C-alpha cells in the first residue's frame, strides 16, 4: 500500500473498524496501522493470518475480535474489548456491509431483516455505543460507509440501496445531535470498488465497461483508493467537516 499522507493525531488513536479483515476493510485496517493507530476490528471469519501479516508488514498488531455485527450484544462486547485494550474508541469506521443481489418480488421478511441488520441496524448501534465513550473523552470521529448505488438508483438490490440512503440520513442526524459534544459524523460513499468478491461474483467485462463509461476518471477503484479519504475524515485534517457525504467513485455521480 502506498501511503500518501500522515495524520499525526491518528498515531496512538483508538480505532474500531467493522469488517476490518477482508476487502475494503482489510485495506482500512492496514492504513490505520501504518498511521500508528491502535486498531481493533470485528469480523465473522477467522482473521488470524491477516493479523500476522499486518504485524509483519506494518510493525503494528491489530486486535481481531471474532463476532457477528448483526448480534448487537456481540457487537457491543467487541467494542468494549477494544476500549479495554486500546482506551475509549475515538475513531469508528462502520465498513461492514453485504450487497447480495435480490429481486424485489422474491424478498421475504426474513431476507429483509437479515439485510437491514447488516447494512443499517449494526451501523446505528455501533455509533450509539461508540458515542457514549466519545462523550466521556470529549471528542470523536465516525465514518459511516454508504455507497453511490442509491444515488444512481441501481436496481437489483433494493434493500441494500435503501440501507445506504438510511445511512446518510442517520449520519446527518447524528452529526447534528452530537456536534455539541465535539463528535463528528460523516459518510463515505465509494463507487464500484473491485474487491475479490466483486471480481468473482459481478464484475463481468460488459458491466465493468458500462460503469467506466459513466465515470470521469477512466480507472477502476481498488480498496486502496478508499483508504486515504477515510483517514482524512477520521483525522483532524477534516475537523470542520461533519454531516457530509463524500463520494469517492471516479466521478460517476455528482453531489452537492
In short:
The chain is of the alpha/beta class.
Question: Helix and strand layout, with pairings?
Answer:
Layout: E1 14-18, H1 23-34, E2 38-43, H2 48-58, E3 63-66, H3 72-86, E4 91-94, H4 109-137, E5 140-145, H5 149-152, H6 158-178, E6 183-190, H7 196-201, H8 205-214, H9 224-234, E7 245-248
Parallel strand pairs: 1-2, 1-4, 2-3, 4-5, 5-6, 6-7
Proportion of helical residues: 40-55%
Mean pLDDT: 95
Question: Structural class of the helices, strands and pairings?
Answer: alpha/beta
Q: How do the strands of the widest beta sheet line up side by side?
A: 3-2-1-4-5-6-7
Annotation, overall tally of beta strands: 7
N-end to C-end Cα span: 31 Å
CATH superfamily: NAD(P)-binding Rossmann-like Domain
Low-confidence stretches: none
Number of helices: 9
The CATH C-level class name: Alpha Beta
So what's the overall shape? globular
CATH architecture: 3-Layer(aba) Sandwich
SSE order, one letter for each helix or strand: EHEHEHEHEHHEHHHE
Largest sheet: 7 strands, parallel
Number of domains: 1
Radius of gyration using CA atoms only:
17 Å
**CATH topology heading:** Rossmann fold
Q: Bin the strand percentage.
A: 5-15%
GO molecular function, one term: gluconate 5-dehydrogenase activity
Pfam families: adh_short_C2
Organism: Jannaschia donghaensis
Family: Belongs to the short-chain dehydrogenases/reductases (SDR) family.
Architecture overview:
The structure is a single chain. By secondary structure, the protein is of the alpha/beta class. It has a single domain, classed as NAD(P)-binding Rossmann-like Domain (Rossmann fold). The protein has 9 helices and 7 strands; from the N terminus they run βαβαβαβαβααβαααβ. The chain has helices at about 25-35, 50-60, 70-85, 110-135, 150, 160-180, 195-200, 205-215, 225-235, and strands spanning about 15-20, 40-45, 65, 90-95, 140-145, 185-190, 245-250. It has a 7-stranded parallel beta sheet, with helices on both faces. Helix 1 packs across helix 9 and helix 4 (about 110-135) runs parallel beside helix 6 (about 160-180). The longest helix is centred in the middle third of the chain and has 29 residues, at about 110-135. It starts with 13 loop residues before the first strand and ends in an 8-residue tail after the last strand. The model has no long low-confidence stretch (mean pLDDT about 95).
